[in-house]
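Chain A, query sequence.
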Amino acid sequence: MIECIAIGIVAFAGGFFLMFLLRNSRLAKKAQKIVAEAEAEAEMIRKEKILQAKDKFIQLKAEHEKFISEKNNKIFAAETKLKQRETGLIQRKDELQRKIKETEVAKKETDLIRTNLSEQLELIERKNEELEKMHRQQVDQLEKMAGLSAEEAKLHLIESMKEEAKADAMSFINEITEEAKLTANKEAKRIVIQTIQRVGTEVAVENSVTVFHIDSDEIKGRIIGREGRNIRALEAATGVEIIVDDTPEAIVLSAFDPVRREIARLALHQLVTDGRIHPARIEEVVTKTRKQIEEEIMEIGKRTVIDLGIHGMHSELIRLVGKMKYRSSYGQNLLQHSREVANLCSIMAVELGLNAKLAKRAGLLHDIGKVPDDQPELPHAILGMKLAEKYKEKPEICNAIGSHHDETEMTTLLAPIVQVCDAISGARPGARREVAESYIKRLQDLEALALSYPGVLRTYAIQAGRELRVIVGSDKVDDTSAEKMSYEIAKKIQDEMTYPGQIKITVIRETRAISYAK
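Chain A, predicted structure.
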């Protein structure tokens, strides 16, 4: 307001001064105009300042009212909280008073119950003393009547119950075993028979000698050479024993390694066909033939895996598969046996709802431990497993290879399939040779094992060792013991002996009454 008044005074003074100086109408009019404009501007400024002052006042008033409202709300909330706390304290006080009253009542009831229990315990103790006295009297009477002490009678009863329980347990075990065989064996036989019927493989028994036929006996002299130098060079280069005897038009090549025999046969055939037989030529032909055999082994392996539909196998494993063609197991060609096992595994895996490709792969590789390049002192199953692991085969395939002769623990379902199919292939009639001495020894071991049991009179291994009949004395072995004996003999044979297929144990107990009419 003061500023407005000052501005007005200045304007008025200015106007007056101008009027005083100019003193003419023109100047007076100009001065009046300037004064009027100054007054108008002063009035506008005055109004703006008044409006700003009013806005500031309204703003300050609103802030003051808001502050007062917040203070009132806080005071009201504090009062409400205090009232709630006061109510809670009153309720807690009432609850404590109620609990004190209940505790006093419970204490009185507990004292009453304790008094009653002590009276009942005294009564029970008196009853127990009376019962114990009566029990002693009855035991004394029973001991006098039976002529045995209580401890002896107890031991006798325990022994009789133990024997009875053992007999019942053996009977129960046999019943369960027979029932399991009837149900499980039926399905297993169906799968095995169907698998065997669907795989038809020729049986080929190989020998450890090869007969090389020649057109005339004159060639024998050329093969032997001057002072035997040709035949010595040929034996040294091939590692095969060459037998030249009086057999007409034939030379015998003898070696346990079929690869060496094949190299010797092909080299000899080329030398005889060519007609040039001398040590330098022999070494050249044998080296060339060995290279051809290596290439043929690789080609056989590739053709085998293609025929079986196996993919992604390491080239070294393919070479070992091809090498199986020149190996035999008990006279059975190893490659033919492995292919048969692969097909059997595939069919059986399909029947059981498993992966047929993995089963076929495991079946083909299960005997690669028999054809290594070196000869480590390891079982062929373990060696095969290590080779499979080395060339990145899957763990389930490695386990199936390593456990098919129980050298390692079976961890997958492929392992028993490979084991069973290996046994099926080897058990075909005529598939494998068995040395007569080992066969007779196995029968003798069977009979001796059963004869070691007390009460056994005679034992007979019949049906080529597929059944063992045990004759026991009727006065030394009862029916229950005979049943137990058959189970124990079967268990011992299973744990201690190696045999093809299964062996049936029959324990025979009979009583014969003999008299003579004279």
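The radius of gyration is 56 Å. Residues 273 and 491 are 61 Å apart (CA to CA).
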